[in-house]
Protein backbone atom coordinates (compact mmCIF):
# COMPACT_ATOMS: atom_id res chain seq x y z
CA UNK A 1 0.00 0.00 0.00
CA UNK A 2 1.00 3.65 -0.19
CA UNK A 3 0.26 7.09 1.18
CA UNK A 4 -1.82 9.65 -0.71
CA UNK A 5 -0.65 13.22 -1.26
CA UNK A 6 -0.54 16.12 -3.69
CA UNK A 7 2.83 16.82 -5.30
CA UNK A 8 4.20 19.66 -7.39
CA UNK A 9 4.64 18.54 -10.99
CA UNK A 10 8.27 19.68 -10.87
CA UNK A 11 9.04 16.97 -8.29
CA UNK A 12 7.80 14.11 -10.48
CA UNK A 13 10.11 12.45 -13.02
CA UNK A 14 8.99 9.69 -15.44
CA UNK A 15 10.65 6.31 -14.93
CA UNK A 16 13.50 5.88 -17.49
CA UNK A 17 12.14 2.45 -18.41
CA UNK A 18 8.60 3.73 -18.95
CA UNK A 19 6.73 0.83 -20.51
CA UNK A 20 4.35 3.05 -22.44
CA UNK A 21 6.33 4.25 -25.45
CA UNK A 22 3.25 5.51 -27.31
CA UNK A 23 0.95 7.78 -25.31
CA UNK A 24 -1.57 8.16 -28.14
CA UNK A 25 -3.89 11.11 -28.67
CA UNK A 26 -4.09 13.06 -25.40
CA UNK A 27 -6.47 15.82 -26.54
CA UNK A 28 -9.62 14.45 -24.86
CA UNK A 29 -7.74 13.59 -21.69
CA UNK A 30 -6.19 17.08 -21.59
CA UNK A 31 -9.66 18.64 -21.92
CA UNK A 32 -10.92 16.42 -19.09
CA UNK A 33 -7.99 17.35 -16.85
CA UNK A 34 -8.55 21.04 -17.51
CA UNK A 35 -12.23 20.66 -16.58
CA UNK A 36 -12.00 18.27 -13.63
CA UNK A 37 -8.32 17.91 -12.72
CA UNK A 38 -6.53 14.57 -12.43
CA UNK A 39 -9.15 12.33 -10.83
CA UNK A 40 -7.16 9.09 -10.44
CA UNK A 41 -3.87 9.52 -8.51
CA UNK A 42 -0.56 8.81 -10.20
CA UNK A 43 1.60 6.13 -8.60
CA UNK A 44 5.12 7.22 -7.64
CA UNK A 45 8.02 6.14 -5.45
CA UNK A 46 10.70 8.27 -3.76
CA UNK A 47 13.31 8.86 -6.46
CA UNK A 48 16.27 6.49 -5.94
CA UNK A 49 18.83 9.08 -7.07
CA UNK A 50 17.28 12.54 -6.61
CA UNK A 51 16.77 13.75 -3.07
CA UNK A 52 13.26 15.05 -2.46
CA UNK A 53 12.01 14.02 -5.91
CA UNK A 54 9.68 11.20 -6.98
CA UNK A 55 9.72 8.70 -9.84
CA UNK A 56 6.55 8.03 -11.81
CA UNK A 57 5.58 4.37 -12.00
CA UNK A 58 1.99 4.44 -13.25
CA UNK A 59 -0.13 7.09 -14.91
CA UNK A 60 2.19 8.37 -17.64
CA UNK A 61 -0.74 9.46 -19.85
CA UNK A 62 -2.34 11.36 -16.97
CA UNK A 63 1.03 12.94 -16.16
CA UNK A 64 1.55 14.05 -19.78
CA UNK A 65 -2.01 15.39 -19.96
CA UNK A 66 -1.55 17.29 -16.68
CA UNK A 67 1.58 18.93 -18.05
CA UNK A 68 -0.22 19.96 -21.24
CA UNK A 69 -3.15 21.24 -19.18
CA UNK A 70 -0.80 23.39 -17.10
CA UNK A 71 -1.41 21.70 -13.75
CA UNK A 72 0.89 22.77 -10.92
CA UNK A 73 0.05 19.88 -8.57
CA UNK A 74 -1.43 16.41 -9.02
CA UNK A 75 -2.73 13.70 -6.66
CA UNK A 76 -0.38 10.77 -6.15
CA UNK A 77 -0.08 7.53 -4.26
CA UNK A 78 3.46 7.19 -2.90
CA UNK A 79 4.80 3.64 -2.76
CA UNK A 80 7.69 3.29 -0.32
CA UNK A 81 10.31 0.53 -0.31
CA UNK A 82 9.90 -0.28 -4.01
CA UNK A 83 13.15 -1.51 -5.61
CA UNK A 84 13.91 -1.39 -9.35
CA UNK A 85 12.57 -4.88 -10.04
CA UNK A 86 9.36 -4.19 -8.14
CA UNK A 87 9.01 -0.88 -10.02
CA UNK A 88 9.05 -2.74 -13.34
CA UNK A 89 6.54 -5.23 -11.93
CA UNK A 90 4.20 -2.47 -10.83
CA UNK A 91 4.36 -0.68 -14.19
CA UNK A 92 3.64 -3.89 -16.07
CA UNK A 93 0.78 -4.97 -13.80
CA UNK A 94 -0.91 -1.56 -13.75
CA UNK A 95 -0.80 -1.16 -17.51
CA UNK A 96 -1.84 -4.76 -18.22
CA UNK A 97 -4.84 -4.40 -15.93
CA UNK A 98 -5.85 -1.19 -17.70
CA UNK A 99 -5.17 -2.78 -21.11
CA UNK A 100 -3.21 0.28 -22.18
CA UNK A 101 -0.15 -1.49 -23.60
CA UNK A 102 0.24 -2.82 -27.11
CA UNK A 103 1.63 -6.33 -27.57
CA UNK A 104 5.19 -5.18 -28.23
CA UNK A 105 5.23 -2.95 -25.15
CA UNK A 106 4.02 -5.87 -23.01
CA UNK A 107 6.71 -8.12 -24.50
CA UNK A 108 9.50 -5.63 -23.86
CA UNK A 109 8.26 -4.99 -20.32
CA UNK A 110 8.36 -8.73 -19.65
CA UNK A 111 11.82 -8.83 -21.23
CA UNK A 112 13.02 -6.24 -18.73
CA UNK A 113 11.86 -8.50 -15.91
CA UNK A 114 13.49 -11.54 -17.53
CA UNK A 115 16.76 -9.59 -17.59
CA UNK A 116 16.39 -9.36 -13.82
CA UNK A 117 16.19 -13.17 -13.60
CA UNK A 118 12.39 -13.44 -13.50
CA UNK A 119 11.03 -16.66 -15.00
CA UNK A 120 7.89 -16.90 -17.11
CA UNK A 121 6.19 -18.43 -14.06
CA UNK A 122 7.27 -15.45 -11.92
CA UNK A 123 5.82 -12.99 -14.44
CA UNK A 124 2.60 -14.99 -14.72
CA UNK A 125 2.21 -15.00 -10.95
CA UNK A 126 2.92 -11.27 -10.73
CA UNK A 127 0.61 -10.16 -13.54
CA UNK A 128 -2.16 -12.71 -13.12
CA UNK A 129 -1.67 -13.83 -16.73
CA UNK A 130 -1.38 -17.49 -17.68
CA UNK A 131 2.07 -18.94 -18.41
CA UNK A 132 1.04 -19.57 -22.02
CA UNK A 133 0.08 -15.90 -22.42
CA UNK A 134 3.44 -14.81 -21.01
CA UNK A 135 5.24 -17.18 -23.40
CA UNK A 136 3.19 -15.75 -26.27
CA UNK A 137 4.37 -12.20 -25.57
CA UNK A 138 7.95 -13.20 -24.77
CA UNK A 139 8.18 -14.86 -28.20
CA UNK A 140 7.94 -11.37 -29.73
CA UNK A 141 11.35 -10.55 -28.22
CA UNK A 142 12.91 -12.86 -30.82
CA UNK A 143 11.91 -10.47 -33.61
CA UNK A 144 14.45 -8.12 -35.16
CA UNK A 145 14.05 -4.36 -34.72
CA UNK A 146 12.29 -3.85 -38.06
CA UNK A 147 9.74 -6.58 -37.29
CA UNK A 148 9.15 -5.17 -33.81
CA UNK A 149 8.37 -1.79 -35.34
CA UNK A 150 5.84 -3.42 -37.67
CA UNK A 151 4.08 -5.07 -34.73
CA UNK A 152 4.22 -1.84 -32.75
CA UNK A 153 2.66 0.15 -35.60
CA UNK A 154 0.03 -2.50 -36.37
CA UNK A 155 1.36 -3.39 -39.84
CA UNK A 156 1.82 -6.95 -38.57
CA UNK A 157 -0.42 -8.50 -35.93
CA UNK A 158 1.13 -10.00 -32.83
CA UNK A 159 -0.51 -13.32 -33.69
CA UNK A 160 1.16 -13.43 -37.12
CA UNK A 161 4.49 -12.38 -35.63
CA UNK A 162 4.39 -15.08 -32.95
CA UNK A 163 3.47 -17.66 -35.61
CA UNK A 164 6.51 -16.59 -37.64
CA UNK A 165 8.76 -16.90 -34.58
CA UNK A 166 7.46 -20.41 -33.90
CA UNK A 167 8.05 -21.44 -37.53
CA UNK A 168 11.62 -20.15 -37.27
CA UNK A 169 12.13 -22.11 -34.05
CA UNK A 170 10.78 -25.26 -35.71
CA UNK A 171 13.14 -24.91 -38.67
CA UNK A 172 16.08 -24.33 -36.31
CA UNK A 173 15.21 -27.46 -34.32
CA UNK A 174 14.91 -29.50 -37.51
CA UNK A 175 18.27 -28.21 -38.74
CA UNK A 176 20.07 -28.90 -35.46
CA UNK A 177 18.48 -32.32 -35.26
CA UNK A 178 19.95 -33.29 -38.63
CA UNK A 179 23.40 -33.62 -37.08
CA UNK A 180 23.90 -35.65 -33.93
CA UNK A 181 27.19 -33.85 -33.27
CA UNK A 182 25.72 -30.33 -33.43
CA UNK A 183 25.87 -28.31 -30.22
CA UNK A 184 26.29 -24.67 -29.30
CA UNK A 185 29.44 -23.71 -27.42
CA UNK A 186 28.82 -22.24 -23.94
CA UNK A 187 28.31 -18.48 -23.87
CA UNK A 188 31.41 -16.48 -22.96
CA UNK A 189 29.85 -13.27 -21.61
CA UNK A 190 27.94 -14.51 -18.57
CA UNK A 191 27.67 -13.73 -14.88
CA UNK A 192 30.84 -15.78 -14.25
CA UNK A 193 33.01 -13.58 -16.49
CA UNK A 194 35.76 -11.75 -14.58
CA UNK A 195 34.32 -8.37 -15.68
CA UNK A 196 30.65 -9.28 -15.13
CA UNK A 197 30.24 -7.28 -11.92
CA UNK A 198 31.71 -4.11 -13.48
CA UNK A 199 29.58 -4.52 -16.61
CA UNK A 200 26.40 -5.01 -14.56
CA UNK A 201 27.12 -1.95 -12.39
CA UNK A 202 27.77 0.19 -15.49
CA UNK A 203 24.55 -1.00 -17.13
CA UNK A 204 22.56 -0.28 -13.96
CA UNK A 205 24.15 3.16 -13.61
CA UNK A 206 23.26 4.00 -17.22
CA UNK A 207 19.69 2.80 -16.55
CA UNK A 208 19.64 0.51 -19.60
CA UNK A 209 16.67 -1.31 -18.14
CA UNK A 210 14.87 -1.94 -21.43
CA UNK A 211 17.83 -3.49 -23.27
CA UNK A 212 18.44 -7.22 -23.54
CA UNK A 213 21.20 -8.19 -21.12
CA UNK A 214 23.76 -10.58 -22.55
CA UNK A 215 24.30 -13.43 -20.13
CA UNK A 216 21.68 -11.75 -17.89
CA UNK A 217 24.45 -9.34 -16.90
CA UNK A 218 24.73 -6.23 -19.11
CA UNK A 219 23.71 -4.94 -22.52
CA UNK A 220 26.16 -5.20 -25.42
CA UNK A 221 27.21 -1.55 -25.19
CA UNK A 222 28.07 -1.80 -21.49
CA UNK A 223 29.95 -5.09 -21.98
CA UNK A 224 31.98 -3.41 -24.74
CA UNK A 225 32.67 -0.30 -22.64
CA UNK A 226 33.79 -2.42 -19.68
CA UNK A 227 36.07 -4.62 -21.79
CA UNK A 228 37.65 -1.61 -23.54
CA UNK A 229 38.25 0.14 -20.21
CA UNK A 230 39.92 -3.01 -18.86
CA UNK A 231 42.08 -3.25 -21.99
CA UNK A 232 43.30 0.31 -21.46
CA UNK A 233 44.27 -0.52 -17.87
CA UNK A 234 46.12 -3.67 -18.94
CA UNK A 235 47.97 -1.85 -21.72
CA UNK A 236 48.97 0.88 -19.26
CA UNK A 237 50.31 -1.67 -16.76
CA UNK A 238 52.30 -3.48 -19.46
CA UNK A 239 53.74 -0.18 -20.69
CA UNK A 240 54.80 0.78 -17.15
CA UNK A 241 56.39 -2.62 -16.55
CA UNK A 242 58.25 -2.44 -19.87
CA UNK A 243 59.53 1.05 -19.11
CA UNK A 244 60.68 -0.12 -15.67
CA UNK A 245 62.51 -3.12 -17.15
CA UNK A 246 64.23 -0.98 -19.76
CA UNK A 247 65.24 1.58 -17.15
CA UNK A 248 66.77 -1.11 -14.94
CA UNK A 249 68.93 -2.31 -17.84
CA UNK A 250 69.92 1.21 -18.84
CA UNK A 251 68.12 0.90 -22.17
CA UNK A 252 66.11 3.75 -23.63
CA UNK A 253 62.88 2.62 -25.28
CA UNK A 254 62.50 3.44 -28.94
CA UNK A 255 59.54 5.77 -29.56
CA UNK A 256 57.82 5.42 -32.89
CA UNK A 257 55.75 8.14 -34.51
CA UNK A 258 52.07 7.67 -35.25
UniProtKB/TrEMBL annotation:
Similarity comment text for this entry: Belongs to the ParB family.
Name by which UniProt lists this protein: ParB/RepB/Spo0J family partition protein
Superkingdom, taxonomy of origin: Bacteria
Any Pfam family the entry gives: HTH_ParB
Gene Ontology molecular function: DNA binding
Annotated organism of origin: Actinomadura rubrisoli
Gene3D superfamilies with a match to the protein in the record: 1.10.10.2830, 3.90.1530.30
Record keywords, A-Z: Chromosome partition
Lineage: Bacteria, Bacillati, Actinomycetota, Actinomycetes, Streptosporangiales
Single Gene Ontology BP annotation: chromosome segregation
Amino acid sequence: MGSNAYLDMSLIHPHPANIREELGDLSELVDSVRAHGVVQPLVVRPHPRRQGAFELLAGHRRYAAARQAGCDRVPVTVRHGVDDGQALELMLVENCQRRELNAMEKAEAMGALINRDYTAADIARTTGLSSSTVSYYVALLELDDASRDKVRSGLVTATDAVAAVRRTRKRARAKSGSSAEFAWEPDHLTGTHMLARKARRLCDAREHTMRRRIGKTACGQCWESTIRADERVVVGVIADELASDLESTGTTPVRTGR
